[in-house]
Amino acid sequence: MVENDIALAKVHFIAGKGGVGKTLISRALSQLFAKKLKTLLVELSEDESGEQFSHAAATRKLSPNLSYVKIHPDQSLYEYLSLKIPSQRILDTFYSKISFAHWARLCLVYRI
């Protein structure tokens, strides 16, 4: 059963410039899909509100068929690197000196 669900899964991306209604459309579509299908709404957030999160991504159940996760790329990268770099001091030193975009390129090139 699960294999069939995965094979039939569809991914929809909503993209565009700021202020064009991506969030509104994404939420409306996810609610529409959730009427008949299990649906996961994923938001990539680069907000710099200063909020600190306990996890880079945490899933919330909004309704029986609809779940939501907000992913913070910087925190996700930090969590991942903390699994690969054993020393907290080294990790913090490197992470504070380099941008997220640069880290992402390094991870792709060197397959960290």
Feature tags:
single chain; 112 residues; alpha+beta; 2 domains; three-stranded mixed beta sheet; 5 helices; 3 strands; 17% strand
Would you give an account of this structure?
The model has no long low-confidence stretch (mean pLDDT 77). The protein has a three-stranded mixed sheet with strand order 1-3-2. The chain is an alpha+beta fold. The chain has two domains: 2-71, no CATH class; 74-110, no CATH class. The protein contains five helices and three strands, in the order ααβββααα.
Helix content: 40-55%
Q: Which word captures the global form?
A: elongated
Order of helices and strands: HHEEEHHH
Radius of gyration, in Å, reads 17 Å
Instruction: Quickly count the domains.
Output: 2
Structural class: alpha+beta
Please mark out the parts with pLDDT under 50 across 5 or more consecutive residues, or reply none.
none
Helical segment count = 5
Spatial strand sequence of the major β-sheet: 1-3-2
Q: What percentage of amino acids are in beta strands?
A: 15-25%
Total beta strands: 3
Report the end-to-end length measured between terminal Cα atoms: 34 Å
The major pleated sheet works out as: 3 strands, mixed
Q: How confident is the prediction overall: mean pLDDT?
A: 77
Provide a compact summary of the structure:
The protein is α+β, with helices and mostly antiparallel strands.
